[in-house]
Input
Amino acid sequence: MLAPELKGKINKLWDKFWAGGLANPLTAIEQISYLIFLKRLEDIDNHEKKRVEAKGEKYKSIFEGREDCRWSHWKYQNAEQMILHVRDKVFPFLKSIQKGNDGEFSKQMRDAIFLIPKPSLLQEAVSIIDELNITARNQDTQGDIYEYLLSELNQAGKAGQFRTPRHIIRMMVELVNPQLGEKVCDPACGTAGFLVNSYQHILKVNTTKDLIKYDDEGVPTNLIGDKIADKKHWDLLRMHTFYGYDFDGTMARIASMNMILHGIEHPNIRRFDTLSKAFEHKADYDVILANPPFTGSIDAGDVHDNFKVGTTKTELLFLELFYNLLNIGGRCAVIVPNGVLFGSSNAHIQIRKLLMEKSQMEAVISMPSGVFKPYSGVGTAVLVFTKGGKTSNVWFYDMKSDGFSLDDKRDFIDGKGDIPDIVEKYKTRSSGANCIIVPFEDIKNNDYNLSISRYREVEYEHIIYDNPKDIIDGVLKKEEEIGKELNELKRLI
Output
């Protein structure tokens, strides 16, 4: 959640884009993302130069031979000079950057178009982004800007383009606990929030506890990964650990930039419709984290032949896809609409049966309907499962609070709510006030229904009532007292 000071500047930035003729929200967000990326690219380059030279090594800058493309070189130009320089020199440089395995980033950037039409708009946007001081904030500010712009415009529900709240992402990452050496995938990655947070989780696990700091919302920072000593392990982490797919080219570009800005030098982000026939269903990942599109459907002719669940509903197809993409023993945490938990169609029952009889359904965490406001009020849950084996018991948790108000404002309360309790109890599968353990057979006998309300015992409060004769005597006595008071009042009149 953004501070009021940041919100004010972002509102100002959006107002400038709106007035400047860029009224399409995703177009505006993409152009803003390019500028943020260019600003951060120089900041990161300067930081890397100091780090490498401190070790007595020679550093090769990404701007070598293109010093005029540095943010600091052109940000003070007058408006007319700036727009020509950015359009004709800086933007071609941006599109030529070789990031990602097989040059995937530069392939994505080929479709990027510089669309800021007015010199004054570019100059004002550069000034505001400079004021945001993104580098010093140690947070996923690009993603927060994206999220906040969509929340202000109320466009997210229609476009299906909104970020999962970061504290929910962190909870899910904690539950599946990705480790160094494992391959992590999000087949519907959006801005790559799950991948970025998985990277930060692995860094946290490999950072000396005394070095870790926490911001005002309890988010860990200064995750330097000092326990990762081997360069081969760093290369593995930054080049061959994180994989994301999105059918929207704009989202794929934003995701790639977001990952690069967070230190994942070679983002394996590809534009792909992972439900289509063209996508390969290969069991290749150890961890899958996702919040796939809800309530969508795909043309029956486009559905991949590997899908066995007879449906075109995307929320069900994605679940089977995740199962197909996991290695045996691989873990998945995914957000689903509540209908997936108790839907009575053959496809609903079939997918739940698959995840319980061919996998170990570890947990079902029901979340309050306000978690995705103001975008959507739909009720959701997190499913956690491990591929292989068979379910014996399922751990259910009924989350009452996520640490923010559950109205459209989503005001900060403590930023945690039940989340620390969920993470702690999940480790031992403890039962308690908000959580229960249900045997597989009970769930199977209920058409594999995964709604906690089906299994929670209704507690009846034992109330001891007074004897009816005593109640009648009490009423008569009270009437007698009232009669005496009325007679006394009549006498005084």
In short: The chain has a mean pLDDT of 87. The longest strand covers residues 326-337. DSSP finds 18 helices and eleven strands in the chain.
